[in-house]
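Rotation project, supervised by the postdoc (A.L.). Task for the rotation student: set up a whole-complex structure prediction and record inputs and outputs verbatim in this book. Inputs entered:
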Amino acid sequence: MADLKLENVQKAFGDNPVIRGIDLTITKGEMVCLIGASGSGKSTLLRCMNLLEPIDDGNIFLDGTDISEPGKDPQPVRQRIGMVFQSYNLFPHMTALDNAMLAPRRILGGSRAQLRPALEEMFTRFGLHDRMNHFPDQLSGGQQQRVAIIRALAMQPEIMLFDEITSALDPELVGEVLDVLRDLRSQGMTMVLATHEMGFARELADKVCFLHQGRILEQGPPDQIFEAPNEERTKAFLSRVL
Amino acid sequence: MPTQTRRQSFEARQRKRANMIAAASTFAVLAAIVLLVPLAPGWENVKRSFFNGAVFAKTFPGLLNAFVMDVAIFLWCAPLIAALGLIVAIARDLRSPALYPVRLLAIAYTDVFRGLPVILVIYLIGFGIPGLGLPRPWNSPYIWGSLALILVYSAYVAEVIRSGIESIHDSQRNAALSLGLSGGDTMRYVILPQAVRRVVPANMNLFIALQKDVALLSFIGPVEIFRQAGVYKSLMANFTPYVGAALIFLALTIPATRYADYLMNKQSKARS
Amino acid sequence: MKFWTTAAALMLASSAAYADSCATGKTLTDGMLTVATGNPAYFPWVMDDAPETGKGFEAAVAYAVAAEMGFDADHVAWIRTSFDQAIQPGAKEFDVNMQQFSITPEREEMVDFSAPYYTSAMAVLTTKSVVEAGATADVASLKSLIWGADANTTAVPMLGDLIAPEKSPLLYDDNADVTAAMQAGQIDAALFDLPTALYLSAVVLNDGALLGQFPADRGENPDQFGMLMEKGSPLKECVDAAITALTENGKLAEIEAEWLQATTGVPLIK
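Outputs recorded:
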């Protein structure tokens, strides 16, 4: 059971407030999509959940434990919450397999031989078995992003955060990455996505949150948000992107 | 339809013109050197003192032999410089407050040793530390002279590596941290391997400079190529041995410099 | 130009000695003999680094030779050069250069030397602790020491010829560095001309000692000092004549007796 609960989370970069009091609950097995214009705070919110950005005020609870307490070691939390980035951020000096193997070897322990079968299975599952020993610059964007997802999954996280992971991809490569997400969804992975793929959000999300200027202006099931948004700003945003 | 576009024929004309100017000016400069220098009233004397065939033939094998010492000193200094440079670079990036003194020390170290002339460090360490009364073989000028080179060059290498570390985009650090890796593991497995690779050409230039500066050890006793050339110069009252030594250095350093430039170009192309 | 030479000639015509000198018109500056020494010039060759006082062996010899050539003390000018400046090609800034330059056939290919004005014994400079450790004045014992020398001197080839040390010697730029290395225990012994060794042992080193000497009149490889001149210098004949005269009339021996310590106290190396 892994519930993530945000209470009045605030974050500013210098004098510039980016997250201005966000409350959000993500329950186990749920898929939550964050939508909103660029600069609305989606990415920052995800980075806060993973503790890559320390929050200024408010609380983040993971299974009831406050993980946002200042000075607390973020490492154990990050091991439980995986994250995939827009620009893949694979380690360019390692093969795809080594990218995925680094964290488990250093943290979970175990030899390469012990870890390899499970990882190999994952590469096969996501159609990358013949790309395991390639370096990132030998892979397409879609392949790299799939490797990045495998790398995060290799730590067997309880929650996965996806930060606009298809935004940097050529349109024809978006599908193969979304298929991976569908696969994860069907496995019951708890996921939070910042995304511009409205169709995908509508198809699979349990909950959609519309962010505007660092606040969640509106949240609800996809049908409600996409069919009958309450807020004018939500309507305006959707009319621009749909 | 013409075989060349207007632009192409214009550019061809420009290229031809540029080539002709380059050829003509190169020829003019070479001609000036070859024809005019020997006309200088002192040329015969300079030739006898600096480009003396007999002296060259007599001293060159000895110089080559002495150069083995330069290469040997280089070979045992280089790995130690790489190791110490790496340690200092990492120490300069320590963020833990408990380790602040280490960081401070690393900063002071790089400032001091980059701020001193190499020869001064060689003198001070090469004569100073053995003067404390160390027994043999621990007072050898080879040890302390090498240490002086190691200290100076590690400071430069550390700065180069640090610039490499800083050139690695934060997204790499974030990606590693988001997996739950510790700061140390992130540095060791993700940042450093990339940083070190990125600064290979810059470090190669430093190591070429090191090979040249090994000659400075001659000031505290070791008879390497520069000193051997000096001995020949003194014995024969002739500077030709220095020219021989210069040729030997160039035979090593020019290919190495070219190779470093090649790597540098390759890398900047790969990044653009 | 002509005006100045005429003027100089007129001015100097008053000096009777000058008028019929063999050096006339052959020096750098008419009527002046320009002598180069080291920078600094060392005891006992030049006292207190002040050659113009005429004190010290080489300073005194310079004035004696100058007088013989027809230059009184007021017409001797001093400049300083390094060894490298002394041998570099091109116009020299001195008429003669004296700083214990040893005469060798190889060097004579490139520069001219006067007749020798001094024949030096070579001495082994060491420290008392090395002597206490058992070093003795015989070649067999000397072979096993770690040797040093000034790289710009003929001590380097002599080391090989006279002693042939087991370990390759360490070489330095000047006396100061040789003594620093000896003080640091990096070398056991160094080969110098005897007067320099005496000075370094007595004044510079803390516990200096002279182990022994290879006497000046040894048959092979005598170390003779000559005044260095530009190759083909027109002055050579005149300088040689002066030195020969000083040698024959015993003046040179007198100067040597005045400035250079008796060397008989230093044991001969077997």
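Student's summary: Chain B has a mean pLDDT of 91.
Supervisor addendum: Residues 52-271 of chain B form a domain with the MetI-like fold fold (CATH 1.10.3720.10).
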